[in-house]
UniProtKB/TrEMBL annotation:
Its main location: membrane. Residues 188-214 are annotated as: Disordered. It is found in: Membrane. PANTHER family: INNER MEMBRANE PROTEIN, PUTATIVE MEMBRANE PROTEIN YPFJ. It holds the Pfam family Zn_peptidase. InterPro entries: Uncharacterised_pept_Zn_put. It comes from the Bacteria. This is Metalloprotease. Keywords: Membrane, Transmembrane, Transmembrane helix. It is a single-pass membrane protein. The lineage of its organism: Bacteria, Bacillati, Actinomycetota, Actinomycetes, Streptosporangiales.
Length: 214
């Protein structure tokens, strides 16, 4: 995320006079050096990020109830919708997130850990939308806001010292945006996620300006 981060310097609107930071203690026990560890860490840190945001607004973040790894065809139903392979989704019935771990690990192995740090914050972004009761005219708006939330989450976590950007992360993240996240959510229009350019723009907006810009 080096370049994205550099691009955001000077345009960070959230903490213009942040004091020098010590290395903060992580709120999460998980270690992010394996696929399984990164997935759990991404979930934990993303929910921690939203907890802080909700708290700042005088609200209480409602954590997801389940975080389900499945493989191919054996995913959980969402309402009367069957889950499908090669997907990740947020289910409003039961307020949970599920992901095809085979699919996600394949991306992780091929494209790096950024895949996990795009997909999981994107899906948890849908959980936040559900909690906020945000309404959308078009599905693409919902999806682009989730991308924006994912960008905001990542930059928030970097600024909080919870994750460190590595060189190559930016292209990794942007590549992942093209491939990632609930492509076949049956209860929204299937190909209404926005173009890759729109998704990247939305992600970058959240990254540079924070969740209130989403
Ligand atoms: Zn989505």
């Amino acid at each position: 995320m080096t370049t994205l981060l550099a691009a955001s310097c000077g345009r960070v609107v959230e903490s213009p006079s942040a004091p020098a930071r010590r290395t903060p203690a992580s709120p999460c026990d998980e270690r992010g050096d394996t696929f399984a560890g990164d997935v759990k860490l991404a979930r934990c840190l993303t929910e921690w990020f939203w907890e802080q945001r909700f708290q700042q607004a005088g609200e209480t973040y409602r954590p997801i109830t389940r975080f389900v790894a499945y493989h191919g065809e054996d995913g959980p139903d969402c309402g009367d919708q069957k889950s499908v392979p090669d997907n990740a989704f947020y289910c409003p019935y039961g307020h949970f997130v599920a992901f095809d771990a085979t699919w996600l690990q394949e991306m992780y192995d091929r494209m790096g850990d950024g895949s996990v740090y795009v997909v999981i914050p994107h899906e948890l972004g849908h959980a936040v939308q559900a909690q906020l009761g945000t309404r959308f005219r078009y599905n693409a708006e919902r999806e682009l806001q989730a991308d924006c939330y994912a960008g905001a989450t990542l930059s928030g976590l970097i600024r909080a010292g919870m994750i460190k950007e590595e060189s190559g992360d930016e292209s990794e993240l942007l590549t992942n945006l093209e491939a990632a996240g609930d492509p076949t959510d049956a209860w929204w229009a299937p190909d209404a996620h926005g173009t890759p350019e729109e998704r990247q723009t939305s992600f970058a907006q959240g990254f540079n300006e924070g969740p209130s810009a989403c």
